[in-house]
Amino acid sequence: MSEIDEKLRSELQKQGIFVVKMQDLYNWGRKNSIWPLQFGLACCAIEMIATAASRYDIARFGGEVFRPSPRQADLMIVAGTVTKKMAPQIVRLYNQMPDPKYVISMGACAISGGPFKQGYNVLKGIDRYIPVDVYIPGCPPRPEALLHAFMELQRKIDGQKLSGADKAEFLKPEQPSEFPVPEFGEHDLNPPANPRTYHPPVVEKQ
């Protein structure tokens, strides 16, 4: 912006008129009105409940309403241990959420299986089936950690573009909004992971 434009902007602001880009206004509205989905899986859900209660009050940051229906939510907080019995239900809930939608993986269990990683019945990370925007380490993470992750998600939303080659993922026509729900196979979930979202690092043995 040139010096003349800044003077004009300052003069307009004195009269209560704010000039911003449509993209900035759009992102500002979305990042300050995030509606998390109201569900929990294990002990991390207790910390999530505490974050929404009066002491920490996530409503101060724009997470005002926890919605009981996925059709009214745009943030899924996967809080707790994801068993293989529960994984299809989580993917189904994610598919029912409208775009744009975001996922916070809360706690070691949701990220990698945590202390139950070697268990036959525990999924080793929810990112095997749905895309995750922010990870929160800890067992369980404190409410401050969830607030920090919430603010990180807000920063991510604030930096999204509405047009151009680097526009937000949910605006790209080739990016799917729904993912296949895994089914119970003879010994494990089928498929064991969604190749469109899960890209494990390749370890080369020397």
Structure commentary:
The protein is an alpha/beta fold and 206 residues long. The chain has a domain at 34-144 and 163-190: 3-Layer(aba) Sandwich (Rossmann fold). 30% of the residues lie in helices and 8% in strands. The strands form 2 sheets. The chain has a 3-stranded parallel β-sheet with strand order 1-2-3. It has a two-stranded antiparallel ribbon with strand order 4-5. Helix 3 packs across helix 6 (143-158). It is globular, with a radius of gyration of 20 Å. The model has no long low-confidence stretch (mean pLDDT 87).
Question: Which helices and strands, and how do they pair?
Answer:
Elements: H1 3-14, H2 22-31, H3 44-52, E1 75-79, H4 87-96, E2 102-106, H5 108-112, E3 134-136, H6 143-158, E4 183-184, E5 189-190
Parallel strand pairs: 1-2, 2-3
Antiparallel strand pairs: 4-5
Keywords:
alpha/beta, two-stranded antiparallel ribbon, 206 residues, Rossmann fold, 30% helix, globular, 3-stranded parallel beta sheet, 5 strands, single chain
CATH architecture of the domain at 34-144 and 163-190: 3-Layer(aba) Sandwich
| CATH fold name of the domain at 34-144 and 163-190 | Rossmann fold
Q: Which H/E pattern describes the elements?
A: HHHEHEHEHEE
Enumerate how many helices there are, as a single number. Answer: 6
Task: Tell me, briefly, the overall form.
Answer: globular
Spatial ordering of strands, largest sheet: 1-2-3
From the helix content, strand content and strand pairing, which structural class follows?
alpha/beta
Mean pLDDT: 87
User: How many strands, what sense, and barrel or not for the largest sheet?
Assistant: 3 strands, parallel
Strand content: 5-15%
